Amino acid sequence: MVFLAIELCLTAMCVALALVRPALGDMWFNSIETRLSHYAVHRAKTIVTIGLLALGIRLALLPQLPIPQPKVVDEFGYLLLSDTFSHGRLANPTHPMWVHFETFLENWNPTYASMYYPGYGLFLAFGQSVLGHPFWGVWLSSGLMCAAISWALYGWLPPGWTLLGSLLAVIRVASYSYWVDSYWGGTVTAIGGALVLGALPRIKRELRVRDSVLLGLGMTILEYTRPYEGIFFSVPALTVLMVWLLRRKSPQPKSAVAHVAVPFLSIMVISTAALAYYFYRVTGSPFTTPYQVNMSTYGLLYFPWQKIAPVQFHHETMRMFYRGGAVVGWYEVARHHPLKLQFLKLWVLWLFYFGPIFTLPCLAWIFTRPKGALWKSLSPELRLLLVLCAATWFSCALTIYVGQPHYVAQLTVVFYAIMLLMMRDIYESGSASLKFLVRSVSFVCFALFVARVAAPAFHLTPQPSWTRTWCSLDEQNLERARLLNKLEQMPGQQLVIVRYGSEHDLILNEWVFNKADIDGSKVIWARDMGAQNSELMHYFSNRRAWLVEPDLEPPRLSPYVEQ
Asked: Residue 492 contacts by C-beta under 8 Å, 6 or more apart in sequence?
């Protein structure tokens, strides 16, 4: 929260300076803007530069932000996807001892697989198989995300404004955010949203097959990552495109079908069939998703009108998770305090995507509209962007969870487009004060980035927190990683029995996660099941057994002794 406070103070200072010294730094800003505008004219060069800049910055930050160690249960679910794909499989056979390995967000019947959709896992698998670690898939996706955002903004804004927005995205999303410092971020979904948004104006202008293919590819990515929210995002976009095509006055209507409908539908049919095949291999049915299997198995709730179903759990820890605050707690909040829940959801999104400095130009735009003419001041472009936001927000508002920023990652480019269109309006208004406010946005963001880089030298590094801003740190299970590394250095194969204390944090400190090939793993993690551990000892009699107690300070690893 330190950097949020600093950002708020700098934003307030900019407002004050806009009122008393609006010409401050005018020549300096003019010089920079001229150079950037000249560079931004070269579109392909700019897009590639933005992508490489994002990749280069994250590489440069590795000494400060090393390859992350997973801790949140969702991360392990995505890493299971990565490892499964890296083994050349879509799903894994159910292990005979699966009850001992049962954990959150994973399915064991009819196959051993993650409950998540495959899109993000494919990037992680590329990093794992080709580059040696799943993190490099995260890294690569961050560069592609920034390049896609830049490409999309070129369809909506002049070159200079596009370059500005692209640089802001690199700083605010691709440098310090949890999206590039964990294994459950929104980079891939953001790529999908950018492809969809960037294709729309290009199709209208040129009716090129390439743009129709990119539109289909963008919606495919949403289908493969976050299909629920993706539907609410895609339907308004497709509706606008269909209305435009039907109203389009052209003597050759066949060109619209050949250049737009056929390529787009071909991509969607192929991708949907491939996804259905994936479902078939994982769940046994092309119409049943792994997510649905997990929901029915553990009585997972998603909407407040659903009923809590009775479930027979094999482990107390599983019952505590699926019937504790992580699920039922939010279910009760959604049913009895819906306004509070919606406020919390907005707060989460505002903190991550906007913060004080990005809110400043939006408020300035609103308050400088003519009285009673706010709606008329909205250009057709702004109206469409706001509709996309409203539709996607509606999908989130229906659920019981506060959610995370990556739930609406497809809106990343939309948020930047809205902000930049408003910034351009007030910049060109002729007011020196408003012009200064617009310029201060990029200056403050750059200053905050420099401050964040220098933070460790001044002992100001943010602590891991669920209050996610553009530079907050995510939780990491360093102790599990330390013990895992120790066990992997030992001769032979290892079996680790995990015994929790009564107050254990299941969401942020779960230790029982395994790779796709359990029997072939050097280290296997299992739950403590008391007397039932004997069957596990018998099955893995060739392994050295250990007991780990994560709730001790520090966590203790000791030889396992059967009782």
From this structure: 543, 544
d(CA 368, CA 362): 10
Q: Is the pLDDT of residue 392 over 80?
A: yes
- Decide if 163 contacts 176 (C-beta within 8 A): no
The sign of the torsion formed by the CA atoms of 226, 149, 197, 85 equals: negative
DSSP string, 402-414: ---GGGGGGGHHH
CB atoms within 10 A of CB 424: 18
Which of 462, 372, 480, 377 has the alpha carbon at shortest distance from 421? 377
Neighbours of 247 (CB within 10 A): 7
Q: How many CB atoms lie within 10 A of CB 227?
A: 16
At residue 497, φ and ψ (nearest 5 deg) are -95, 125
Q: How confident is the model at residue 251 (pLDDT cuts 50, 70, 90)?
A: low
In contact, 544 and 495? CB cutoff 8 Å: yes
For 107-127, write each residue's pLDDT tens digit.
Answer: 999 999 999 999 999 999 999
- The residue length of the chain stands at 563
Q: Which residues contact 294 (CB under 8 A, 6 or more apart)?
A: 105, 106, 107, 115, 300
Q: What 3-state class would DSSP assign to 429?
A: coil
- How far is residue 414's CA from residue 233's CA, in Å, rounded to a whole number? 11
pLDDT in tens, 260-293: 889 999 999 999 999 999 999 999 999 999 999 9
- Three-state DSSP state, 525: strand
Phi then psi for residue 321, to 5 deg, are: -75, -55
pLDDT score at 309: 87
Q: Using an 8 Å Cβ cutoff, are 408 and 148 in contact? A: no
Rg (CA), the chain: 25
Buried b (16+ CB within 10 A) or exposed e, 324-351: eeebeebbebbeeeeeebeebbeebbeb
The Cα 282–Cα 243 span in angstroms is: 38
- Identify whether the C-beta of residue 357 lies closer than 8 Å to the C-beta of residue 451: no
Residue 53 CA to residue 144 CA, distance in Å, equals 11
Write out the two tokens for 422: 């408003």
Farthest-apart Cα atoms in the chain, separation: 84
Task: Give which of 316, 303, 475, 479 is closest to 400, Cα–Cα.
Answer: 303
DSSP state string for 308-359: ------SSHHHHHHHTSIIIIIHHHHHHH-HHHHHHHHHHHHIIIIIHHHHH
pLDDT, residue 466, reads 79
Q: Binning pLDDT at 50, 70 and 90, where does residue 253 land? A: low
Contact 84, 516 (CB under 8 A): yes
